[in-house]
Amino acid sequence: MENYSIIDHRVYYNETDQMGRVYHSNYVVWMEKGRTEFIRDKGLSYKKLEELGVFLPVSHIEINFTKPIEYDSELKIKTILKKVTRIKVEFEYEIYDKELKTLYGTGKTTNIFMGSNGVLKRASKDLVEMIKK
Fold first, then answer.
1. Residue range 12-30: average pLDDT?
2. Dmax (CA) of the chain
3. Can you give the CATH number for the domain in which 76 is found?
4. Is residue 67 a contact partner of residue 75, using CB atoms and an 8 Å limit?
5. CA angle at 11 for the pair 6 and 17, rounded to the nearest 5°
6. Which among 18, 55, 72, 122 would be 20 to 30 A from 11, CA to CA?
């Protein structure tokens, strides 16, 4: 069974280039929004994690652009948990139209658990289980 969350997003003018198409760097922002809401759906938040001294920086990112997205498009951003260990979390992303029929792009991130001092940190088993649920 897939472990995922879906958020809605409307493309704003400031997210487009001169051709009226979404500028590529916005996919990174949307992936972060998806990840943030995925974590929130688990009863957590990045703010709460940081208060506990746990940070989740991106260590790897991939994006595949399959179809251009235009200004004012209504999107669904699907964030899928692929793997979580005490060291890292791997997510995949799918960006669709509002009916989930047209796939505009996909992505992947690997996020590592780190302390506020910038040193790798093993997540607690409880935290891993919360993310998995």
1. 96
2. 48
3. 3.10.129.10
4. no
5. 135
6. 55
